[in-house]
Structures are given as structure tokens and as C-alpha cells.
Amino acid sequence: MQFVADGIVFAAIISLGAIGLSMIYNILRFANFAQGEIVATGAYFSLGFVALFGAGIGSIGPLAFGWPLLVSIGFAMVATSLMVLIVDWLLFRQLRDKSASRITLIMAAFGVSLMGRNLITLIAGGDPINFSFFIPRAVEILPSVRVVPDDIAIVVLAGLSVLALHLYLTRTTMGRWMRATAENPTLARVNGIDTRAVIRWTWIVGASLATLAGALQGHIVELRPEMGFSLLLPMFAALIIGGVGNIYGTLLGALFIGLSQSFAVAIGLSAYREAVSFMLMLAILLVRPQGLLGGRD
Amino acid sequence: MDALSLLSFAAFFLTFASFFSLTCLGLNMQWGFTGLFNVGVVGFFAVGAYTSAILTGPAYPDTLFGGFGLPVPIGYLGAIVTSAIAAFVVGFVTLRLREDFLAISTFGIAVTIQLLALNLQSVTRGPNGLYSLPKPLSGLSESNLVDNLLYLGICVLCIGAVYWAFEQMVRSPWGRVLRAIREDEQAAAALGKNVFAYRLQAFVVGCAVMGLAGALYANFVGFISPQDFLPIVTFQVYVMLIVGGSGNNLGAILGGVVVWALWSGSGAVIAAVLPPDFQTQAAAVRIVLIGLVLALMLLYRPAGILRERHIVSREARMSPQSRPTR
């Protein structure tokens, strides 16, 4: 059952990244191929703030990270959101104003993805970096299931973020506006909803969660310019498997992908784990194109 | 630089550009005429390259399959066949889906093919790649220059043949259906056209041409490894097609040459300016530049250098005077 524990940790990171993908898909109606780079940008901004504050990443109890890292992630969320808003303002907003097709938006995102990855390489170098060198001390939580305390913290952090997102979408005005815009943009506009603000906050929420995903992934593995790009296929798979247009479905899809990838690793297919999530996605598309929980077109 | 080395450089440059132009033509059939967003271009290029390498390459001590040492033209044909088969399988699964699902799926295909090339060591030798691939007609002359010129001739012939065939195809009723599907899929379906079948045909034809381009590349360079087939290639080909003018076959060829010139030119400039320690950064600058080119084209000149020509049927092209009056 070790693979279940590993799979849940991976699923937590995937779901944080895929929520942004799902929200942009719902509101702006295009597959954002640059989502991986938002994750990576968030991770590198976190690293930048950790370096700026010079207090290391701290520790809480058995955890190898503490407030210094969490505060840095907070600052990185703001920085990443600003970055994403600038890109939207420079490129995507203009394409929307020219009522460019969905495919043009995807292609532009593909270009942004490539540029983002290489800008990171340009600024931070292409070699892997770590926040800190910690030696994980695994504890046995169940017979023969061992996890690092940090992994548990990651799952808890992801769970809290998802809960916060749920409350945001259901209890706040902006959250309701987002859901209304996702349902029917024209009707939302007619009812006086400021769709530009909705788009802005969609990017901000998605980028903030992606930053958390990137920083956590960077903490337990390492930071590389391609770290987000290699998460892109699992994130898309989570989106499609869960049902496009359904954020809760995306979470379920992420769990599905996390478990199947760690199962693939467990049976010795670790070199092909990205392909495994992709094959599952294709299978779901063939059998149940609306996804597990069913989405909306 | 004397005239001879200039000629040699030009031949080398144009040969490389022709691999891209040919891939661009294949993509034009899919994206330009049918509106299929294939993000897996490099995957089909790689299938062609590996097929030809396995069919024509020498036997390696550490592979279980391949090294058939067949004549190069058989390698080219094999590449066309395998990439068409791969395209048929992929297209059959994905072409019923909405356009953005197709984009995601083809992206996944390219990643999967890359993983296979990297990990299927007994066929592809993994990261070490396949080497000593034969070049056709190289026995005719001692000179490297003549060699390269002859190969350029083969590439130009291939491009010419594909160009001619594609022009016939897109002017035919078949081509008109493709454009109808691109403009309005539901209207085409309402007219009784089997949208899925037409899409699949355009997808397979385009991918077969990409596979041929991959094979031409493999046998020219003589060495292939998974590093040659990264997602950046797909992106370059899209930039080429958009710069040249999607929906225009001449534009596709032109875009390949123009963007390849920009790409290799900027590489030379950056390499000259930056110290040798910064080669990683140099590569990154180049990619950021090409991304900028794409963004600017999408924003300010989405039609490309050569716009798509409006091809209408003979009847509709009649001048107003000769049109029958009611």
C-alpha cells in the first residue's frame, strides 16, 4: 500500500496545479498550455524570496520547512499573480479583444510556455536547485507504509487550500460571479457582472495555487526549469478524467492520476509514468468523454 | 569566405530548411486547411526518423531489433508508412474530440513517443541514439559539397512532389470539404459530409509527410537521438507556418526557409556575442526570441507573409457579366 501514500502526495501537488487549469478553462474556455510554467515560476519566485529574506526555510517540529518558507510562498503568490496578469494584459487580453479563436489562444499559451521555461533558464540557470538539503526521515504510519512528515504536511496544506477555494467559490461575491461567468458569460455580463474582474481574479487564484504546487514540489523534489512542463500532462489528464468544467472533478481526476502514476512506478514502469497518465486519459476520453463526474461543454 | 565554401554553406542551410519546409507542408494540410491543431508534430517526425534509421542503419551490437541495412529509398517509404499508421491510430482515437482535446492528446502522443525513444533501449539505443546512418548517392563523388548538393536535390524533389500533390488535393472537391470543416464543422456535417473521415484523411496525409521529413533528416545527419525531437521542434514548425501563411502551401515552404534563416542567424549572432560559458543561456535567448515572433505575428499579422488564396469553384469564379441573369 506504499504506492497509495506516494500517490496521494503526488495527487495533492497535481490538484493544486490543475485547479488553475480548470478555472481558466471554465472562464476563458481554452486549454492553458502555459500552466506548467506558472507552477515553475511560482517555485522559482519562492526560492527568490527565501534567498532574499536569508532566513532559510525554517522548521516546525518534525517538518523540514517552517514559517520562512510559507511566508516566501505567500510573497511568491503575489509576484506570480502579477506576472500572470501582465502576460494576460500583454497577450491574451488583446487576443480576446480581437475575438481570436480558441486555438489561437492555445497556440499563444504554447508560446508563453516555451518562453517562460527559457526565461527561467536564462535567469536561474538550467541546473536543478534545492531550497535546502534535508535528509527525509520517514515514519511508519501503518504497517510497512512509511511517509516523510513533510509529505503529510503537503497533503494537509493542499486540503486546506481546496477547502478555502470551495468557500471562496460558494460564499464570496467574486466566487459566485466566477461560477456565473463559467456557466454563461453573456448572461453574466448582462446581469452587471464585471467579467474583466472575474478574469483577473481567476488568474490570481489559479496562479496562487499553482505557486503553492510549485514550491511544494520544489521542496520535496527539486527546482528545474522544466519542473512545471513535466507536470502539464498529468494536470491535463486530471482535468479531462475528472470532467472538464468541474473543479471537484479535477480533484478526483488528480487523485486518479496520482495513484495510477505511483502504481506505475511500483510495478517498474517509472520511465513511462507520464505516458501512463496519458493512456488513462485517452481511455476515459474514448469511453466517457464527459469525464468521471461529468462536465459541461 | 570564398565562393565554394559559400555554396557549401548555402547547400547545407537549404537542406536543413527543406526538412522544416516539408514538415510545414504536412502541418499546413492539417492546421492550414482543416483546422486540426496537432501539437505532436515532432512525434510523427520522430517516428519517420527512427523508422528510416532502423530500416537503413547498420546492425548495432546492443540492439535486439533493427539494423536491416536496406536501401535508403526503402527507409523513406517505410517512414511514410509507419507515420501514416501511427497517425491513423492516433487520429482514430482523438479526431472525434473537440479541438482543444485534440491539442492535449497530440501533445501527449509526442511526449509518449519521446519516452519510447528514450527508454526502448533495445530498439533505439535510448539516449545514445542511432548512428552511422547511410546517405543516398554519397558514393557518386568524393566531394562533400557534391554530396550535399545531391541531397539537397532529393529534398527539393520531395518538396516539389508534395507541393504539387497538395495543390491538386486542396483545389479538388475534397479540399473544399476540408476548408468547409475548418470554417464551420457543423455546416459541413449538415451537408452530409462525414467530418470525421475527412479529418482523419487530412491528418494521416499530413503526418505521412512529416514522417518523410523525419526520414530525410535522419539520413542526412546520419545520427539521431531523443534530444533531436523535443517539443521546441513542434513550436518552430508552427511559427514557420504562421509566419509563412497558413492555408498557403507556398507560404508553408517559404516560412520554413525564412524562420530557419532567422533561427540559425540569431544563433550565430548570439554565439558570437556571448562568451562560450553561456551556451545554455544563448539557447534560451533564441527560444524567447522565436516566441516573441509568434506572439507578434498572432497579434498583428495572423495571416502570415503569404495570405491564403481564396479558391472557389469554376462556376463561382465567372465574371459578373457572364453570370446567368434571372
Q: Tell me about the biggest sheet of chain B?
A: none
The 3D shape of chain A can be described as globular
Could you give the order of strands across the largest sheet of chain A? 1-2
Do you know the CATH architecture of chain A? Orthogonal Bundle
Which pair of chains forms the biggest interface, and how many residues does each contribute? Answer: A-B, 43 and 41 residues
Question: Using only CA atoms, what is the Rg of chain A?
Answer: 19 Å
In angstroms, what separates the terminal alpha carbons of chain A? 37 Å
Mean pLDDT of chain B: 85
Q: Identify low-pLDDT runs of chain A.
A: none
What is the oligomer described by this structure? heterodimer
What does this structure look like?
The complex is a heterodimer of chains A (297) and B (326). Chain A has helices spanning 2-28, 35-53, 67-97, 102-124, 149-171, 173-183, 185-190, 195-220, 229-242, 247-266, 273-287, and strands at 139-142, 145-147. Chain A is mainly α and 297 residues long. A two-stranded antiparallel ribbon of chain A has the order 1-2. The model of chain A has no long low-confidence stretch (mean pLDDT 87). Chain B has a domain at 9-229. In chain B, 70% of the residues lie in helices and 0% in strands. Chain B has twelve helices and no strands. Chain B has helices spanning 3-33, 41-56, 72-94, 99-119, 121-124, 144-171, 173-183, 185-190, 195-221, 231-244, 249-273, 279-300. At the A-B interface, helix 3, helix 4, helix 9 and helix 11 of A face helix 4, helix 10 and helix 12 of B.
Task: Please render the helix and strand layout as text.
The complex is a heterodimer of chains A (297) and B (326).
Chain A: H1 2-28, H2 35-53, H3 67-97, H4 102-124, E1 139-142, E2 145-147, H5 149-171, H6 173-183, H7 185-190, H8 195-220, H9 229-242, H10 247-266, H11 273-287
Antiparallel strand pairs in A: 1-2
Helix pairs in contact in A: 1-5, 1-6, 1-8, 1-9, 1-10, 2-3, 2-4, 2-8, 2-9, 3-4, 3-8, 5-6, 5-8, 6-8, 9-10, 9-11, 10-11
Chain B: H1 3-33, H2 41-56, H3 72-94, H4 99-119, H5 121-124, H6 144-171, H7 173-183, H8 185-190, H9 195-221, H10 231-244, H11 249-273, H12 279-300
Helix pairs in contact in B: 1-6, 1-9, 1-10, 1-11, 2-3, 2-4, 2-9, 3-9, 7-9, 10-11, 10-12, 11-12
